[in-house]
Amino acid sequence: MLPIITSLVQTLAVNGLGLLAGAVQAKGKEFIESKIGARIPENPSHEDLIKLKQLEIEQEQLLLQYTLKQKELEIEESKLLAEMHRASQENATHRWQSDMGSDSKLSKNIRPGTLVYILTAYLLFALLSAMGIDINEAYVKLLGEWGQLVMLAYFGGRSVEKIFEMRMNSSNKKEEQA
């Protein structure tokens, strides 16, 4: 059976049916026949080759349309994700600006206070552990994860705020110049 498929693949390739030849070689003749809805003769005549070429062109067009649709969906998904990320960052910035504009000392100092508390507790756990007092590892791990989250939000958030402010200032300057 293998020499027949090799001969068929060569015949298809020589007659300009490279896509079909590659598919037959990769997936097998029966599989491709089921997908294209036509029989591929072992020794195709000239008319068979013309019909197969038409089928190959139709399948290639379908593949191109499918590929274009997939790319369009990927682009839309990327745009949506970027918009969601931007909106999330913008909301956080507005919340932090609101906190800073408040008269309450607690709202102005909650982020740095939380960071100081977590770092102090982590240091306390480290000192207790150094003195030989056994601290439950789950607490240390949880506190470490909280510390990472708070530091990322505090320092990363401040960076995002500053970048946002710089963009707003540069767009305002461009509007003023226009």
N-to-C terminal Cα separation, in Å? 75 Å
* Strand segment count: 0
**SSE order:** HHHHHH
Mean pLDDT: 78
Radius of gyration: 33 Å
Contiguous uncertain segments of 5+ residues: none
Number of domains: 2
Describe the main β-sheet briefly.
Answer: none
Structural class: mainly alpha
The number of helical runs is: 6
User: What overall geometry do the principal axes of the alpha carbons give?
Assistant: elongated
Helix content: over 70%
- Relative strand content: under 5%
Protein name: Holin
Keywords: Coiled coil, Membrane, Transmembrane, Transmembrane helix
Organism: Polynucleobacter hirudinilacicola
Explain the layout of strands and helices.
Elements: H1 2-14, H2 18-27, H3 29-36, H4 46-101, H5 105-130, H6 137-177
Helix pairs in contact: 1-2, 2-3, 4-6, 5-6
Textual characterization of the structure:
With 178 residues, the chain is mainly alpha-helical. The protein has two domains: 101 residues; 77 residues, no CATH class. It contains six helices and no strands. Helix 1 packs antiparallel against helix 2 and helix 5 runs antiparallel to helix 6. 6% of the residues are buried. The model has no long low-confidence stretch (mean pLDDT 78).
